[in-house]
Amino acid sequence: MSDNRELEEAGPTPSQSLTRTLRSKYQQAFRLFALNYLSRRVPYLLVTEFPKSGGTWLGQLISGYTGLPFPRNEAPSLQESVLHGHYLPGAKLDSLRRIFWLLRDGRDVLVSHYHHLLIWNERNARQPKEVLYHRRRLRFEDYGDVRANLPAFIDFAFTHRPSRLHRFTFMGDWATFNEAWLTQDRVPADLIVRTRYEDLLENTKVELARVLGAALDETIDVDRVERVVEDHSFERLAGRKPGQEEKSSFLRKGIAGDWKNYFSREAAEVFDQHAGSTLVRLGYEADRSWVDRVP
User: Which of 16, 86, 249, 293 would disulfide-bridge 12, Cβ 3.0–4.6 Å?
Assistant: First the structure.
């Protein structure tokens, strides 16, 4: 099936796709402007993550608890809000009320990224440029054969640098993005609240209460936390239990450790070559011998 045929089946016409792309570029630019300049007047909360680390979910949880707007995929308003993006540390972020730095195991991130960038779902079908862009550069014979394609995709994810025309803000790869936050000295440490997607999954109520307690100058209402967690559970949002995969859904699986279902030894070696030391520094493995245990 050609890229053009897939674009037709994905839904939007070329003019609709262009309109959505231009709107998205404007919204990205305005969010960047708001974070760098308006934050000196508006006390924004920011969730920053490498893509596919669960940032939208964390933003929904924080917004649900605080009652603050969460302008997802749109330009932020000039009022206190929860913002979300893939921002590197910078001195101009020191005016934010709080920064939530969200981590996720890079191996799971890459598997999730593969599905989002190369397999159609209800979200990317509405704005298909990313899928078409990556399929034109990674011409796999069968995009559904994730395990066979993953080594090449991982290498691409760590080495490809898109042009400014395609992405005028580029956060780097999973390792460089998180290393930048791990070693940064441009934002005061007390502004940053660090959490992990895996901890949120394992005990959402406890971890969310900890994160909110570290960020807000108020006593945390545990009953409200419980209601918010229930309202934004994977089961309620996706309509199925975590682990029940739906490849055509943006909320594909909702679990940690899914990389073990897709990584071959070759994929593990490629990932370790690019990001093995970062994986250890972030606490996802005790050392780099995990590669030897991948069949």
Answer: 16
